[in-house]
């Protein structure tokens, strides 16, 4: 004989259990408010990071904008016209990728030769009302562009200036000029005094020699000074106290605008290297012996 089961209590229990147990599907699915936050943040970042070809950027018919890593550059195009994207002279093109290659014609070419050789990326839309992005990689940087097409007023070309490269070149030129400049002007060889003793530790930066002209003191270091830490110079007073002294660094020389009897070069934290420089009383010519080591 089959037993009958009261379905009402079981149905009530099932409904209560279903209401109290969260759905796995509902737990993993973000709500509308949560989903909108990343989308809004991305849209805001794209708007902020996009640089438009405003009137000051144009030189004749070419838009020229300063390059900044991570910036999106907006390029306006029109059908049946090619827009020329010009890279830095000497820059080697790596790859070109676009989000829409079906409705955009994208190619590349070069102009010039030798150090003046330039790569060009050429873009042309099939129709108005299109938009996509373009990523250009080279041996120097990555360009990120936003392409859009309209019925008229497309850009004929886009190029960049490179402020960071110009700053690095300026610093390199200044460093080369400083290296080529003499350590001091108007020195009389006959007046140079080399009677300095160099004692103490023997770090890589230990001076090679010390001399003065009766007014300034010159401390010559090995080339290792240019690639390592430079030790500070202390003058030892009559009471034995060490005092910092002003000096200039010219290449691998310290130029001190005074004379001193005893000075020390110190460098290090836990284990400090100390090199002592002591001036003698005699005066000899430049061809005389160097200070004792």
Order of helices and strands: HHHEEEEEEEEEEEHEEEEEEEEE
Task: Please give the share of residues in helix.
Answer: 10-25%
User: How many strands, what sense, and barrel or not for the largest sheet?
Assistant: 6 strands, mixed
Strand-residue proportion: 25-35%
- Count of separate DSSP helical elements: 4
Main sheet: strand order: 2-3-11-5-8-7
Output mean pLDDT.
82
Question: Which residues form runs of ≥5 with pLDDT under 50?
Answer: 1-21, 282-293
Task: Tell the overall outline.
Answer: elongated
**SS class:** alpha+beta
Give the key terms:
single chain, alpha+beta, five-stranded mixed sheet, elongated, disordered N terminus
Describe this structure in words.
- With 293 residues, the chain is of the alpha+beta class.
- The protein contains four helices and 20 strands.
- It has helices at residues 7-20, 24-28, 32-48, 163-180, and strands spanning 50-51, 58-59, 62-66, 72-77, 83-86, 93-98, 104-111, 118-125, 131-138, 142-149, 157-161, 196-200, 209-212, 217-220, 233-236, 242-244, 248-250, 253-256, 262-267, 273-279.
- A six-stranded mixed beta sheet has the order 2-3-11-5-8-7, with no helix packed on it. Strands 1-4-10-9-6 form a five-stranded mixed beta sheet.
- The protein is elongated.
